[in-house]
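stage 2 :: seqdesign
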């Protein structure tokens, strides 16, 4: 088509005011179509702005010839194509996220005003990215019939890519490429707002890195930055497209997982994150070793908005770290504020150290050939007057964070050496040394002083180390090993085979013993497990290197028989003895020999635990109160109901929206045994939880009478009348036994 014809409707007489008026030479008016067309041609050739037009069907019927250079193809290749096939609004546009698609705008015949669109070349397989700024208006004839669009466009690719980069920098972490705190906050806020109305769930994971500060301090900040980049890569590989990952700053990370409330799947995912993050990181020819802890909250059960969910996941994360690190926790309503709890714990620990509230207990290491005790592992114990027993998995990490670990370690060394000097010379004592202690240049001198003050022979002191000691500078590590061996003390590699073992450690470090971790022993008698093979391999490796091996955590005879058959010569575990107080050891040692016969269950059962917890039992439209005991993943023992036939279907109300469907498998007097329809899952804290939680309103909607539901606030119109049937079972009162309660967060 001729450009002059296209513009003819825009060239008029100029109006009565111009009639007969003499214009200066060279002036072009609307009455001069040729001159005007020449100006338009010059304008288009300059490439500042191009002119475009569509027909009534939305096909591109005109575009400035010079636009072809920017399109990368002749304009004839794009003419006749629908505009919506050539251009699209960019979903990544930071300024246009709420705009309607181009197709909608054109069909609504809206005016286009500064709309950024991405050019899609027909048949382009290279994915060229070109952005244009479009303006235009719909054209109608005198009868009001739509004739298409007329407008202008310009290439804004350079400016737009700069804007995209600025936007990316504003929303993404420059170090790792993950979303930053600003983006994650906005995403979480938007998702929770939308999901609240749709009654959908969303999980939030919070995690930070254990021992990251030590990497920064010992290897330098560039190494710390590289470590964070590798952590980000591993998280991307684990999470995939299941959620969005963000780095909030420092060593804090967050993961948003839409439409996921299955605590079994979440626990498995958290466990995988913990396992993969704990693998060694190659950095500048060295190996950095860290760990991570994970806190999990689930909307709508643990919070409805971003502030509630963030606080809940933070509290769960602190509970995971407080439980010993390298663990995950689900949020529960009884978790305390992190900072307040940490400070209270540290203050109490300092007081315990200065006021002699801490003590050492000693667990025997037994020779399997004759059941003779050949050594003891010193284990720190803290009985707080208000907290009760505080696990070392709780206060040791707190001591490391609060700069108390060196003082605790020195006290433990001196106390253990002083105790062991009175034992037979054939009996050694083992003391745990943390990575933080090992990095202390004064460690060899502290060991020297402990030996000198007690008079203990150096060969009777064994220092138990984990592979995390290799995280520091290799030259310093080698010097510390050399200094300790020159003292004559023994060195044992603890927890071998868990997480990030390397044979290079055994080649380079002068260990006298390897300890097989309890996690392998727990599953060594189970079918389809490789634990027994791993135990065999570790024992064989130790013998080849002329090292001793101690197998930890043996509790039952089936485990003991298996590890002995695999070559275990030394065993440490409850089948022989728990950790003993010093006075009991001295009393039992008697004449100088200490022999312990194994005593324990025939078969190890990992998931059975003694509990005492009052629960609700629902049958038909009646709710009974009972007591739960001996809980496992697959079933439980319940006391308090008489006359319940085997095969009866029940629903157990475990609290906090947890309902477990089960069937009675055994019934005797006031005690029944039930089997769960769906096995329980770990809560990360040694307790068990249901995979899902159920809203009481959802249960009511499904037809379950509200009288049977847990107490709560229900709308009056939903409250049903009295039960329609008589209770079929007799409820009796059951007293407590002092057993530890199971966790049901």
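stage 2 :: out
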């Amino acid at each position: 088509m001729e450009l002059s014809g296209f513009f003819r409707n825009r060239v008029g007489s100029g109006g009565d005011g111009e009639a007969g008026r003499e214009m200066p030479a060279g002036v072009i008016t609307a009455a001069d179509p040729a001159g005007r067309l020449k100006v338009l041609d010059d304008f288009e050739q300059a490439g500042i702005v191009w002119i475009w037009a569509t027909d009534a069907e939305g096909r591109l019927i005109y575009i400035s010839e010079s636009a072809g250079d920017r399109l990368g193809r002749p304009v004839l290749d794009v003419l006749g194509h629908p505009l919506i096939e050539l251009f699209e609004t960019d979903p990544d546009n930071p300024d246009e996220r709420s705009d309607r698609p181009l197709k909608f705008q054109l069909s609504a015949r809206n005016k286009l005003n500064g709309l950024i669109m991405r050019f899609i070349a027909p048949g382009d397989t290279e994915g060229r990215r070109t952005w244009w700024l479009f303006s235009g208006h719909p054209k109608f004839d005198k009868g009001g019939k739509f004739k298409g669009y007329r407008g202008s466009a310009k290439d804004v690719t350079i400016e737009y890519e700069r804007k995209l980069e600025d936007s990316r920098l504003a929303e993404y972490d420059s170090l790792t490429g993950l979303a930053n705190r600003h983006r994650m906050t906005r995403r979480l806020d938007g998702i929770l707002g939308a999901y609240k109305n749709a009654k959908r769930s969303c999980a939030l994971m919070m995690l930070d890195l254990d021992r990251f500060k030590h990497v920064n301090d010992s290897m330098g900040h560039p190494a710390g930055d590289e470590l964070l980049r590798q952590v980000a890569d591993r998280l991307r590989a684990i999470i995939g497209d299941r959620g969005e990952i963000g780095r909030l700053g420092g060593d804090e990370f967050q993961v948003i997982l839409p439409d996921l409330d299955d605590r079994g799947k979440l626990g498995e995912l958290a466990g995988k994150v913990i396992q993969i993050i704990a693998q060694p990181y190659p950095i500048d020819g060295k190996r950095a070793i860290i760990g991570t802890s994970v806190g999990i909250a689930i909307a709508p059960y643990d919070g409805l908005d971003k502030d509630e969910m963030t606080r809940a996941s933070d509290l769960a994360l602190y509970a995971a770290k407080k439980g010993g690190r390298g663990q995950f926790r689900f949020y529960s309503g009884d978790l305390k504020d992190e900072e307040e709890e940490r400070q209270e714990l540290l203050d109490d620990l300092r007081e315990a150290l200065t006021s002699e509230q801490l003590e050492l207990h000693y667990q025997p290491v037994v020779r399997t050939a004759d059941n003779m005790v050949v050594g003891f592992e010193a284990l720190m114990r803290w009985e707080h007057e208000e907290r009760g027993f505080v696990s070392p998995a709780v206060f040791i990490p707190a001591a490391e964070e609060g700069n108390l670990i060196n003082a605790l370690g020195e006290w433990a060394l001196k106390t253990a050496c002083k105790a062991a000097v009175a034992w037979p010379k054939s009996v050694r004592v083992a003391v745990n040394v943390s990575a933080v202690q090992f990095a202390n240049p004064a460690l060899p001198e502290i060991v020297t002083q402990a030996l000198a003050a007690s008079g203990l022979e150096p060969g009777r002191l064994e220092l138990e180390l984990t592979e995390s000691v290799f995280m520091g500078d290799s030259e310093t590590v080698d010097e510390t090993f050399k200094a300790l061996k020159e003292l004559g003390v023994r060195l044992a590699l603890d927890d071998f085979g868990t997480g990030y073992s390397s044979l290079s450690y055994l080649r380079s470090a002068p260990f006298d013993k390897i300890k097989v971790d309890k996690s392998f022993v727990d599953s060594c008698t189970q079918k389809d497990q490789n634990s027994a093979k791993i135990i065999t391999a570790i024992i064989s490796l130790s013998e080849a290197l002329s090292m001793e091996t101690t197998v930890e955590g043996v509790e039952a005879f089936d485990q003991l028989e298996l590890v002995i058959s695999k070559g275990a010569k030394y065993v440490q575990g409850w089948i022989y003895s728990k950790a003993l107080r010093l006075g009991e050891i001295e009393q039992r040692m008697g004449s100088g020999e200490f022999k312990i016969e194994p005593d324990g269950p025939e078969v190890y059962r990992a998931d059975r635990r003694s509990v005492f917890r009052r629960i609700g039992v629902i049958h038909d439209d009646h709710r009974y109160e009972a007591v739960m005991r001996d809980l496992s993943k697959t079933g439980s023992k319940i006391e308090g109901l008489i006359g319940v036939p085997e095969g009866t279907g029940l629903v157990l109300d475990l609290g906090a929206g947890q309902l477990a469907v089960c069937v009675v498998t055994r019934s005797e007097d006031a005690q029944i045994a039930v089997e769960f329809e769906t096995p329980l899952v770990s809560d990360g804290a040694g307790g068990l939880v249901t995979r899902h939680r159920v809203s009481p309103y959802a249960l009511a909607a499904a037809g379950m009478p509200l009288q049977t539901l847990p107490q709560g606030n229900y709308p009056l119109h939903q409250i049903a009348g009295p039960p329609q049937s008589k209770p079929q079972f007799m409820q009796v009162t059951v007293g407590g036994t002092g057993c530890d309660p199971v966790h049901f967060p």
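stage 3 :: structure notes
- The domain at 172-335 is CATH 3.30.70.270 (Alpha-Beta Plaits).
- The first helix runs from residue 3 to 7.
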